[in-house]
Each structure stands twice: as structure tokens, then as C-alpha cells.
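Figure 2 data, in text form.
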Amino acid sequence: DKINVEFVENLQKSLEDGGSRRMPTRYGDRHFELQIYGGKNQVSVISNDVTDRINLETSLKESKEMYEKLYHTTPAMMHSVNADIEIISVSDYWLEKMGYSKEEVIGQRSDQFLSTISLEHSVDHINELKNAGFLKNINYELVRKDGTVIHVLLSAVAEFDRKGIFKRSLSVFTDITAEKKAENEVKRLNE
């Protein structure tokens, strides 16, 4: 079969040039990495069982894919920012509500989507997030691509590296535009 042909070819090359090669292979349900070392008229082959590593890598990949799918398809406005407050990931619902494509948003500073009023307070909130590690129900106004404003409550949690330095955050936005409109209408009627 293909692996046997590849193995024989690697053996021959190592014999000819004295070089070493690595080659993955399987035996039953086990994964091996063959290390082939060539020398003058001899070849040494060391076989390492890497099944546990392969299974762990596969499990981590599947877990990452599941997390990313869950993050992107959750019916909530979410985005993550890095230490420079640049958006590094965003949920599909956030994109839908804001009217942007993913390509228009990734790498942009998150504060560029704030209204002028909200922008005035954003530095204080970012500092609070970096110090306390979270924010809860902060009133913000986001400006959609079409220029309309939506009112949201922002809650965020920070992630820090081992030295305690801010690394990134995950923010969730709850659209309260309808509630704000109703609240303003009640105020108007009571005047």
C-alpha cells in the first residue's frame, strides 16, 4: 500500500544520502511517527507511538470548532477585542444587527462603532474593564452602518495573561432600543 511504498522510498533515500526523515504512519487504531536515520550502509528506524498526542490534537480541534460555531451562531450581539481594543471576532448576530460584513469589522477598533456620547465615556469603561476584569450593563449607543443608532447594555469579561496583563475581552450587547423609545415616550407624555 501507499505507506509501505513511502516507507521504502524514505529508507532508500536515507541510505543514499545519509539523511534523516520523519514519517507518520498508522497501525490499526494507533498512530506512530517513524524517525528514519541513514548512515553508511545502514539505516535506523525509531518508532514513537503518538496516538495520545494525535487524539488530544483532534479533540482540541473539534472543541475549538464547536466553540467557534457556538460563538458565531449564538443569537446575541457579541464581539471580542484584543489589548489594543481591536475587534478580533464577532458573532453573526452582531453583524446582522449592525449591518456590517465580517471583513469590514475585524481589525477595527471597537470604539469606532460608538456614538459621540458613548465615545466620551469609553476610555473610562475600558480602564474599568482592565482593572476590575468585568463590566455589567453599561449603557451605550452603537451606530449601525446605515447611520441609525441602537441603544444597548454592554457587559464584558476580561482575560489576562499569566502576568496579569490585559489580553482580550468578550463583550455581549443587549439591544434595549425599544425600551429606550418607550421610556422616552412616557417622559414625553408626562411633560
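Caption note: The helical segments are 2-17, 51-73, 92-98, 102-105, 116-132, 177-190.
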